[in-house]
Amino acid sequence: MERPAWAPRGIDITVPSVSRIHDYYLGGSHNFEVDREAARQAVGFLPGLPKFVQADRAFTRRAVRWAVGQGVTQFLDIGSGIPTHGNVHETARAADPGARVVLVDHDPVAVAHSRTVLAGDERAGAFAADLRRPREILEHQVTTEVLDLTRPVAVLLVGVLHFVDDADDPYAAVAQLVEGLAPGSLLILTHAAFDAVPAGEEGVRGAVEVYRSVRAPLVERSREGIARFLDSVELVDPGLVPLPRWRPESDVDDEHPYAFSGFGGVGRAA
Amino acid sequence: MSARAEAEDRLRRFAAIWSRAVYPVTTTSRTRAELEEQLLPLAGRLSEALTDRTLESEAGQYAGAALVDAHCTDPEALSRSLDVVDSYLVLYCGADGDREEQRARCARLQHRMAAGYARALRDRTLAEQESVACAALDARSAVAEALHDSEVRFRAVFQGAAIGIAIASLDGRVLEANDTLVRMFGGLGHPVRRNLTEWVHPDDAPHVWNLYGELVRGERESYRVEKPFFRSDGTVLWTNLTVSLLRDADGEPQYQLALLEDTTERRLLHLRLRYEATHDALTGLPNRTLFFERLEKAVTRPEGRFSLCYLDLDGFKTVNDSLGHAAGDRLLVEVADRLQSCATAPGEMVARLGGDEFVALTTDPRDEPGHSELAGRILQALEAPISIDGRELLVRGSIGVVDGPTGERGPAEVLRSADITMYRAKSAGGNRFELADPESDARAITRHALTTALPAALERGEFFIEYQPLVHLGDGSVRGAEALVRWAHPQHGVLGPDRFIPLAEHTGLIVPLGRWVLEGAVRQARRWQGTDNGPVRINVNVSPMQLHHPGLVADTVDILEREGLEPGALCLELTESALIGADDDLLKPLRRLAEMGVDIALDDFGTGYSNLANLRRLPVSVLKLDRSFTRGMQQYPADPVDRKIVEGIVGLAHSLDLSVTVEGVETGAQADALRELGCDTAQGWFYARPGPPDRLHTLDLVDAVG
């Protein structure tokens, strides 16, 4: 039975959470032993996995700074996770102290943590919502209070779409999001690419199994499948590319091989 | 390059080496170049500490903590940093002077760095653990709050709902019941808290408890029924009951949820409306609608018998007209009560069809076929006078009884048969019952069919006229003809006027039909005038209704003028009975026609109340003697009494200056006798049967009876 809107989800910290696992990958301590155990298992299969997550963060950082450079200073980060170092809020504020940021995640602990971090900041807010119901995100009180949706907003879908199954129609969700944005808004997204992982099939399967066991099954999509998320926007240069190749600020050759295990791209809404 | 610039260059090179060593094990999202920028001030601080001993401790700890800040939190980063410091700090950043002293300081700096790094990392780890634990707690209390809010909302919905809600365990224990439900059951006194399985009512639909069983066994998710309950005061509560099975997270049946909507009022209203729609407001008896439902059920059952009495009060219209409708209504109520008391056995019902028509239906009567005990009882029940406004009224009724096996006739057919039979009882004098018989039914039905077919038949020209000669008894010549209308019915063949004229008279169609006959006959008479046989008089029958019709004179004049026939050639025949009690108003049109020269014949003379005195004031010029007087003269010698009567009538007629025509002359002996008695004109089969106009002058002159 579908859970009624007024019945909240329970919190069970004995179940690992992706946002805390990724915090652990990034050297953070915003995690519990169950998270670390899951993280250790995944890294056991794919030793470079933290480097991929790190590359995701590095891409985000470049994209956010580029967006500010384009004059877009409002950010809606969906799947924001635990706001550790290099998060959108920090990066955007570094680039423009007046930047406005809304963090959205479906993990209530991540949201609670974000609220603590952003406490007292009127130009930032966080709330729990599900990417699969984009209207709830766009119409949420925090969104409408912090952001001016009549002006361009950069929406970030970093490291999140590969957790949404096709059965939930993430394409329609992304299209609905874009539809609710002012012209000139930006869609910033990344997506894992299984076949680019520099490890054997066995390693990938093992890691996928770990994520499935923590109730965050990974969805494999081809580059074309990923590109379709950007159908409703105009891709900016250099298009949809392996993460390190998107407007690099250092020598791409120096990048860790696992950093290439996903695609990143930015599109502009008409 | 200045010494200072050179020192800065060496510092930068040291920072570059450091960043290259550390970057691969950091988790920063910054680039290596940016990390190098972060490390550069640390290199500066370390470099200063090499030459200034007082800075040693602070710089080392600072650099260690700064590494943690730069997200070099992997212990490998510390190890590599210490390696770099150990290998390159003195080399790149050392000052001129005692190298050994600087190496020793470098070693101590490394100790301080390690300690500073460890402390910063520990602090950061503790802070982050604290913050994530707080976040988890916050999230949990937010959930708890939301749960509480939701619980409050749910409670409000539960208690405030307009429908009754109960939650019960699978064994039927009621765990929760809202106020509405308690109120519906009539207050707290009611055992709402008792087991669901005790909520039994005798009017429960048979399947209700099967559904219940299926639900609690988990074989059914929900059911919806209309179910009565006892309220605490013993009255009935009718509900629309919906019961759903609630399962736990693993899908195991756990509770049952019952939603009850109070439909008692609606049901009562429905019953009342149904009662009003099926009962007569005046007498309270079942009405035509309900009777038809029952009759249909009774006569269409596959096996069994039925008996139907159709009662119509005799002379009820008189009561209504003389005593008023209120009295009439009271009379009907009393009759209804008496009928009701006659039909109390199971399988008997009485209904009022409307007006003063009642029916009594018996399902599976115990009478012999062809008898009706109930009809007898009804007539008996009506025998005692009914007292209305101090008057004792005698009420009589005519009853048509239809009985028979079921499954043969439909309700409408049965009712029609009863109706026809009732009219038979009425024509037989009333205050009796008659049993239906198929022949009378068939006759009545044909009569009905002919009546309804008449108007179309006139339009389609299905009527035609035959002519029977009127022969002058003196010289045997044809002096005239009687026009006789026929109906060439497509199914029944040629029908004589006795079959349809009374029907046309009854429906009023006689007026246009009579006009049509008059027109045709006059036209034919005009045609005969031009032939060698000379002028012929034409006799046309006029019915009582035509006589009352205001257009009779105008129509007749119009036709005569149009066809060009002088009025003296036309004779209108009227029956004696049509003129009985005729006042001057009614005679006026006849007088006018007579004044114009039209002859008026008194048809069938002697069959009615032959008021001889009346003859004087009637504008009559011809008497047509009924055939009953002349039948006795068919033989030779003629019956002497008949002779005397005819002789007397002829004498009387002639003394009043009326001519006499005799009908039904069938033998030569008859003709001779009538001639001797002085009759003027004769018609009958002896001369000719009615036939087409061109046969008028062909006389048979043979005895028609043998």
UniProtKB/TrEMBL annotation, chain A:
Name listed for the protein in its UniProt record: SAM-dependent methyltransferase
Record Pfam families: Methyltransf_19
Automatic annotation (TrEMBL), chain B:
PAS domain mapped to chain residues: 150-219
Name of the molecule in the record: Diguanylate phosphodiesterase
TM spans (from-to): none
PANTHER family: BIOFILM ARCHITECTURE MAINTENANCE PROTEIN MBAA (PTHR44757:SF2), DIGUANYLATE CYCLASE DGCP (PTHR44757)
Ranges where the PAC domain occurs: 223-275
Annotated Pfam families: EAL (PF00563), GGDEF (PF00990), PAS_4 (PF08448)
PROSITE patterns for the chain: EAL, GGDEF, PAC, PAS
InterPro entries recorded: Biofilm_reg_signaling, EAL_dom, EAL_sf, GGDEF_dom, Nucleotide_cyclase, PAC, PAS, PAS-assoc_C
Domain GGDEF as annotated: residue spans: 304-438
NCBIfam families on file: GGDEF (TIGR00254), sensory_box (TIGR00229)
